[in-house]
């Protein structure tokens, strides 16, 4: 049909505006072929806005008319127009920090709360700690305060009394969630108005508001909004209205993101609408934008907070609608490989959402699709580093781009594919080179890979071809992309091989076969629009509106009556919003969710309403699958009620290929049907002349055996020799065979295999970590991830360690080696050993290690050990929490053992465990057994489950590669790490001309830590000699010798400053000398509970001081704990209660080129701080202040980071323990830099006569506090570097590094962040 004869059809236009390209799709009623337009997102010489230009070209092709660029567009030729867009406008503004200037209003005492954040550092081994800066430019503290009246850990709650007081006390209110809130201080409207007027006069028009507990008590935020509207602010982002979920820090950061991005989005939308004559307001025109949650929103309701993953969300909706079959319900892994990175996700019939993500350093609390991004894209740079093949995370970007772009760029994954023949330059446009008129340059890739091959061969003594080198980099990239897929599946209880792989994105087709093969996935689905699938996803998406409210209380029949009413109200709210957007009420479907958790845990699950309406049963089932256990009889708590309204606004039917695949007649195509041929390099076959087929000329039912290439205008699909391609009407289906059963030479180290085995061993440790976290029950392990998992050689030497906890890095090896020597000959399959004693390789008693041998197929020989060490928050002793500041003997700190078989031949020995945890600790004077026995046992079983997971994965690795090969590369990886450390030490030795490095520092009690490092510059070996260190002390600061090893391995890794394997090789060049009976090698009787978290920090400062690496950091982690309960010393009876402890950040030390960072955890600890709202909800405490301690960092050319002030007010009589260092000796500066200020602990005490006293309680103190009394903790600052001058002091503000091109995200990345945020 001629385009001029169109009889006013309807048109759907879907657009994905990406960072580099904008993809546009025009679907016209009555036409089989859609119109596809792909153009550069930025081309100012030709057009101002890429989406408008794309629409212009679609309209021209659809109508045959000319639409001049200098005129507004008209859609009058169509009866109905639907424009749907995903855009990176918000993402780019966030990455480039080009959002709206705005201010933050926050409760008094918390002006720095968002700056401090969780207090953890982004990179575990970074001495120059760089945290992205906050988004707001100004902050105002608001005079107001509310708190939660009761507390969840109350052992004797009285709800009736609470309700009675609610009716009598005018300061008590019922919050939205149902919790009773106490108004401590009403909003000071006068001062708030004054502050807002001041901001307005400074030019601010956008504000974010976040008040403590506003998720449930919203009145104060709403009142601030009313005042701000009166004054004239145009953007007011209230945390309570954006997503009313608990966690002030996350909610506040989200509010600032909204205030920062929404004006940018609104300006963009206004500019976009101005390109149309009707400004898209005609009755027959719809304009909607894709939100991060996979739903569309009318342009008037599209906000910055929900726009951050707008583009990638379209891809998930796209593959869900084109790959998932509602009949066979086989789940799908989405694999979207682009230029900078790769997105992976999972779909099983419902979209999987996360509600808290960190994107570009900003925590965003909003529903988002669980899209996990890894740093391996077509533009990822290839490195040969420390004997390993490394891909990314750095990217060549669009400029200069890969080497083949002819702009002087580095070698990338794209170059490797081009050089190997997997990209065909003849079918690429000639848009490269300085004048953008040349083809891809194959010759430069050949030249560069030849040069790199010569370097690698010279260093390794091997004779690899350039092609083998290029393929090796592709294999390493494939392994890095397979890792998050395993984490999304296996680590969550799903079988990876039981999925299909949906491949899309510009680079995905070149890697799909290899990725699927390595994961044993048999089927790859590639849609005809795979290169523009995000745009197609916009066309398939539904219009969505969500409403959510917080809740509280137990899920039971009574609660469900109230919840049902609230659900109805939320449904009504959603219906009203969608009908306002033009959605027919009959087309609206509702998804109802309850956010549920077991009482006593923090494991929230967003549970979709089941068909039988039994939320409790659905929660138990989901909990069992996700975490492998349940708590029969324990209360289930409701945290949030969520209603997701879905308006079915599209008429495009889902088009999964399974039915067509079952019915189509298959015909095998031979090489005689090829359109061309080209030489392609494959693993195992080398260069092969490979047939090339044009997709558009292939008919449904054609089957092409690999090797082959299938190309169309926008994609290249590589069909590997172990695969076959079936052509369908809208899909290409790849049938892939597994690449298992590899046999490699176990006599010569292949650097490619070495790199891949490094990934695989780390993947084993990582999956052990996930299993431990999933199956544990305690907050310490499940939420704070205070544990480590590792793989060891048959003689007990460290092979791979998931880097959760720096202080465990070297120490676990000594525990495994000790047990290997004790039990090695008597162990049987099914045995597991438990140990925690300092003399047996322990750190402190709460860190309990489970060690498991891994056996060969005949169960005759141990081929590996695996071990999991978890910090148990309670193991008995003289005080709740088992971390007493006044312990002098080891037995006062709880349960201890040199080692015993906790499991023998598969049988868990409950009797021995009870004796270890309860009976033996309680036998000592004034001591209790563990106060949380059931949780302890559950966590021990979780560690056993983690070890079982590790053993299973190692056995699979051996079956794939043979035991000889696996052991060969196990040793090679250790040797690789050793070479890296030796090279570092050689370099340092030469710089210092063979002279010893010396340093010492003093603990606050005067005990000296003294170190001399003697380096052999020829061999790279070194003595770390602590001779001269003071005697062991009669307090809890003694540190078992394994801790010094951990501090050394941490320091060496930090000095190398690139990723190397963390294993025994790191310490192989090092000889550690620590005289017995000293602080760092105490006797078996010495108390040690603070040696692990605190003395370890001081050891690290001494090691780094000897190397002159940086000034001292705070040298502490400021442990405060409080609680009630335990054994009553007068009656001897067990009193119910609770205990809680936390560590508090300080300042980091400056270095030769950087300022220290304020309010951050350093070196051997990286725990997250408990959010203020969660803290007050759980415990009888009010957090009055959490701010940066200005001026506490040392002065210098580069200034030390400042410490913090944390002020706690107690609401009932409690036992409080304070345990800290650096209250006497200041954190040192270097090279003329000033020392940081010491810490200070103050106690605001109420006397019987009604007066108050402020008392300095020193670094260590046990207190019995009364209601209204406070502890104010001032943490130390970091030391400065370099002689200060006036100009330096004025300029000493903390630099924030530029954001890298790659930004990791998703639930897998969130786990990694949390794992690195553990003590």
TrEMBL record:
Occurrences of domain Hydantoinase B/oxoprolinase (ranges): 750-1284
A GO CC term attached to the entry: cytosol
InterPro entries the record matches: ACX-like_C, Hydant_A_N, Hydantoinase_A, Hydantoinase_B, Oxoprolinase-like
Boundaries of every Hydantoinase A/oxoprolinase domain copy: 251-546
GO terms for biological process, alphabetical: glutathione metabolic process
MF-aspect GO terms: 5-oxoprolinase (ATP-hydrolyzing) activity
Annotated Acetophenone carboxylase-like C-terminal domain residues: 559-737
Highest taxon above the source species: Eukaryota
All copies of domain Hydantoinase/oxoprolinase N-terminal, residue ranges: 12-232
Similarity remark: Belongs to the oxoprolinase family.
Protein name: Hydantoinase B/oxoprolinase domain-containing protein
């Amino acid at each position: 049909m001629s385009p001029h004869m169109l009889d006013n059809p309807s048109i759907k236009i879907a657009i994905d505006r990406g960072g580099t390209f904008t993809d546009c799709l025009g679907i016209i009623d009555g036409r089989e072929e859609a119109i596809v337009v792909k153009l550069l997102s930025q081309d100012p010489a030709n057009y101002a806005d890429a989406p408008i230009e794309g629409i212009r070209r679609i309209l021209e092709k659809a109508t045959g008319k000319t639409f001049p660029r200098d005129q507004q567009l008209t859609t009058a030729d169509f009866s109905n127009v639907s424009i749907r867009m995903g855009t990176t406008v918000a993402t780019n503004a966030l990455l480039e920090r080009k959002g709206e200037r705005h201010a933050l209003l926050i409760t008094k005492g918390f002006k720095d709360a968002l700056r401090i954040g969780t207090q953890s550092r982004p990179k575990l081994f970074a001495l120059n700690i760089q945290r992205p800066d906050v988004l707001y430019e100004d902050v105002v503290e608001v005079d107001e305060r509310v708190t939660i009246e009761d507390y969840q850990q109350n052992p004797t709650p009285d709800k009736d009394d609470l309700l009675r007081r609610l009716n009598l006390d005018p300061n008590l209110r019922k919050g939205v969630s149902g919790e009773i809130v106490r108004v401590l201080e009403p909003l000071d409207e006068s001062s708030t108005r004054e502050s807002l007027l001041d901001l307005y006069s400074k030019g601010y028009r956008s504000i974010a508001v976040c008040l403590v507990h506003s998720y449930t008590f919203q009145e104060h935020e709403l009142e601030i909004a009313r005042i701000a509207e009166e004054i004239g602010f145009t953007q007011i982002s209230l945390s309570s209205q954006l997503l009313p979920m608990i966690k002030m820090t996350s909610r506040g950061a989200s509010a600032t993101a909204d205030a920062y991005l929404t004006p940018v989005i609104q300006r963009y939308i206004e500019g976009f609408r101005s390109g149309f004559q009707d400004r898209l307001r005609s009755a027959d025109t719809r304009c909607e934008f894709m939100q991060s949650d996979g739903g569309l929103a009318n342009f008037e309701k599209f906000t910055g907070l929900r726009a951050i993953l707008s583009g990638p969300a379209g891809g998930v909706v796209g593959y869900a609608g084109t790959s998932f079959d509602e009949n066979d319900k086989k789940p799908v892994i989405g694999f979207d490989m682009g230029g900078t990175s790769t997105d992976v996700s999972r779909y099983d019939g419902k979209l999987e959402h996360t509600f808290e993500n960190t994107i570009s350093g900003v925590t965003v609390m909003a529903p988002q699709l669980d899209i996990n991004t890894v740093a391996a894209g077509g533009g990822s740079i290839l490195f040969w580093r420390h004997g390993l093949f490394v891909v990314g995370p750095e990217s060549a970007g669009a400029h200069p781009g890969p080497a083949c772009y002819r702009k002087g760029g580095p070698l990338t994954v794209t170059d490797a594919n081009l050089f190997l023949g997997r990209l065909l330059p003849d079918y690429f446009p000639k848009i490269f080179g300085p004048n953008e008129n040349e083809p891809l340059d194959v010759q430069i890739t050949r030249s560069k890979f030849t040069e790199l091959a010569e370097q690698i061969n010279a260093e390794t003594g091997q004779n690899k071809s350039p092609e083998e080198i290029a393929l090796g980099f592709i294999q390493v990239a494939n392994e890095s992309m397979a890792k998050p897929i395993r984490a999304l599946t296996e680590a969550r209880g799903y079988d990876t091989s039981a999925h299909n792989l949906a491949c899309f994105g510009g680079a995905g087709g070149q890697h799909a076969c290899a990725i699927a093969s390595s994961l044993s996935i048999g089927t790859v689905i590639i849609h005809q629009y795979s290169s523009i699938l995000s745009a197609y996803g916009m066309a398939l998406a539904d219009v969505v509106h969500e409403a959510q409210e917080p809740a509280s209380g137990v899920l039971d029949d009574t609660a469900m009556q109230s919840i049902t009413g609230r659900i109805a109200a939320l449904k009504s709210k959603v219906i009203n919003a969608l009908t306002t957007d033009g959605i027919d009420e009959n087309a609206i479907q509702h998804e109802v969710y309850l956010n549920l958790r077991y009482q006593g845990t923090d494991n929230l699950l967003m549970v979709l309403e089941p068909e039988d309406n039994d939320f409790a049963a659905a929660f138990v089932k989901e909990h069992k699958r996700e975490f492998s256990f349940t708590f029969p009889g324990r209360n289930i708590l409701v945290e949030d009620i969520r209603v997701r309204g879905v308006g079915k606004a599209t008429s495009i039917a889902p088009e999964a290929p399974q039915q067509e695949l079952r019915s189509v007649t298959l015909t095998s195509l031979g090489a005689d049907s090829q359109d061309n041929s080209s030489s392609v390099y494959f693993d195992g076959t080398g260069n092969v002349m490979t047939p090339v087929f044009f997709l558009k000329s292939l008919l449904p039912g054609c089957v092409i055996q690999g090797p082959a290439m299938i190309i169309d205008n926008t994609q290249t699909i590589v069909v590997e020799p172990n695969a076959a391609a079936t052509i369908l009407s809208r899909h290409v289906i790849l049938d892939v065979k597994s690449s298992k059963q590899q046999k490699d030479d176990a006599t010569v180290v292949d650097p490619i295999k070495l790199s891949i085995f490094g990934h695989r061993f780390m993947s084993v440790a990582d999956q052990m970590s996930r299993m431990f976290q999933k199956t544990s029950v305690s907050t310490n392990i499940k939420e704070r991830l205070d544990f480590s998992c590792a793989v060891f050689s048959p003689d007990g030497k460290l092979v791979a360690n998931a880097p959760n906890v720096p202080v465990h890095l070297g120490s676990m090896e000594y525990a495994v080696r000790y047990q290997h020597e004790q039990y090695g000959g008597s162990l049987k399959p099914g045995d597991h050993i438990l140990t925690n004693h300092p003399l047996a390789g322990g750190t402190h008693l709460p860190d309990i290690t489970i060690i498991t041998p891994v056996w060969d197929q005949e169960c005759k020989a141990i081929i590996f050990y695996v071990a999991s060490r978890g910090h148990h928050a309670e193991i008995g002793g003289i005080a709740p929490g088992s971390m007493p500041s006044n312990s002098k003997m080891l037995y006062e700190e709880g349960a201890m053992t040199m080692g015993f078989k906790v499991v023998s031949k598969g049988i868990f020995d409950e009797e021995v465990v009870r004796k270890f945890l309860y009976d033996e600790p309680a036998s000592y004077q004034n001591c209790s057994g563990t106060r949380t026995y059931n949780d302890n046992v559950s966590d021990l079983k979780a560690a056993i489950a983690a070890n079982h997971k590790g053993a299973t994965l190692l056995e699979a690795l051996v079956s794939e590669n043979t035991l000889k090969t696996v052991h060969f590369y196990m040793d090679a990886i250790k040797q690789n790490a050793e070479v890296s450390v030796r090279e570092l030490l050689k370099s340092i030795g030469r710089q210092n001309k063979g002279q010893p490095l010396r340093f010492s520092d003093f603990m606050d009690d005067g005990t000296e830590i003294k170190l001399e490092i003697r380096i052999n510059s020829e061999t790279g070996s070194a003595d770390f000699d602590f001779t001269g260190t003071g005697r062991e002390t009669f307090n809890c600061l003694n540190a078992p010798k394994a801790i010094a090893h951990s501090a050394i391995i941490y320091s060496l890794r930090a000095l190398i400053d690139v990723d190397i394997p963390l294993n025994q090789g790191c310490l192989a060049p090092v000889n550690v000398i620590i005289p017995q009976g000293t602080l760092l090698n105490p006797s078996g009787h010495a108390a040690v509970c603070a040696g692990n978290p605190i003395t370890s920090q001081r050891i690290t400062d001494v090691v780094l001081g000897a190397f002159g690496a940086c000034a001292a950091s705070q040298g502490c982690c400021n442990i405060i704990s409080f609680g009630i309960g335990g054994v009553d010393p007068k009656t001897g009876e067990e009193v119910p209660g609770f205990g809680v402890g936390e560590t508090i950040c300080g300042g980091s030390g400056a270095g030769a080129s950087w300022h220290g960072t304020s309010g951050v955890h350093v070196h051997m600890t990286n725990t997250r701080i408990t959010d203020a709202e969660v803290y007050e909800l759980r415990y009888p405490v009010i957090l009055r202040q959490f701010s940066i301690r200005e001026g506490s960092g040392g002065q210098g050319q580069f200034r030390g980071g400042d410490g913090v002030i944390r002020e706690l007010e107690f609401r009932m009589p409690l036992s409080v323990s304070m345990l800290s260092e650096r209250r006497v000796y200041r954190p040192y500066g270097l090279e003329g830099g000033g020392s940081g200020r010491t810490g200070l602990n103050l106690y605001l005490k109420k006397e019987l006569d009604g007066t108050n006293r402020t008392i300095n309680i020193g670094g260590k103190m046990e207190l019995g506090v009364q209601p209204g009394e406070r502890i104010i903790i001032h943490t130390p600052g970091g030391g400065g570097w370099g002689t200060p001058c006036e100009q330096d002091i004025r300029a000493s503000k903390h630099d924030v590094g530029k954001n890298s091109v790659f930004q990791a995200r998703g639930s897998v990345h969130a786990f990694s962040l949390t794992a690195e945020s553990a003590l």
